[in-house]
Amino acid sequence: MSKKLRVERLLADRAGFSLTELLVALVVSGLLVVGVAGGYVMQKQTYEHEAHLRELQLNGRIAMEQIARVVRNAGLGCRENFPPHGNESVHGYSSVFTALNQTSGPDTLTVVTGVASRTRVAETAQGNVIRLAVADAFRPSPDKRSHIFIAPWHNNRFQTITAMNDTYVTVSTPRSVFAGDKVFRVSAYTIELRDFGDEEGDPRLLMLDHSVDLDDERSAQVAEAVEDLQFQYGWDADNNGIIDDHEYLDDPAGMEDQIRAVRIFLLVRSELPDPHYTDDAGTYTIADRTIVLDTDDGNGIDSEFDHRYRRQLFVKTVMVRNHNL
Which one of 39, 60, 152, 306 is most buried, by most CB atoms within 10 A? Predict the structure, then answer.
């Protein structure tokens, strides 16, 4: 083979892609990129959707359990202090339940209870002075009075602390107590929904403990992004041992001492709007309130009831177990 022929063959072997081959390669590569990008975007949207739902559901469950715990123990350690058995009050509340029912906004409920044991009696004692294992939990704000319930007591009454000296407390009425008895702090707890009007994810569900300073409501925050809070109150009108649906009231005014069950409604939304989602419900009817969603994007996606938020309605019926029936 001549030298010229060998050079021509060598050049032919080193030739690049033809234009047709290059175009085919570009089309195939483009299709692959589009497919991968589309899959990524879809997977990202699915992940964000599931994250919003998980956050929403966790928020709702935690809020519901905290409310249910207080309602379930309503009247613990104080029922016999209130009418018709007594005339005392806890931070101005002389009833186990004080309800504010609203059809144009969220309901509010104040519950008086000794919801949690704080310490125990350190030694057997009689009279007005009792030594506790730990007393710091009962030190009130300067303008507050501490009320304690010592269990077991058959009459479900609280005592008012009139003086404190280290772990020794002086109570309002002489009592016989025994080492190891549980000591509860009795207080009024107000459950309400409040809009702070800031950028931190309002509105917020609060549970205010009236035995402490209420100036900083944020310290009592239970959950964010709760759009509505409603209560219904059940009582056994026909005394058949069962609370039927028609025996639940939206407004229990004048019948607070007959409440035996509370139905709690929480409408919870995702903390952020989802531009790929539309809430087609349009309206939510919760107890005696109807909420109409804002479907006008011209008002911005951060409006209070915008249809771009995901929502879930949580409902729980709680039986009150501490009315000393």
Answer: 60
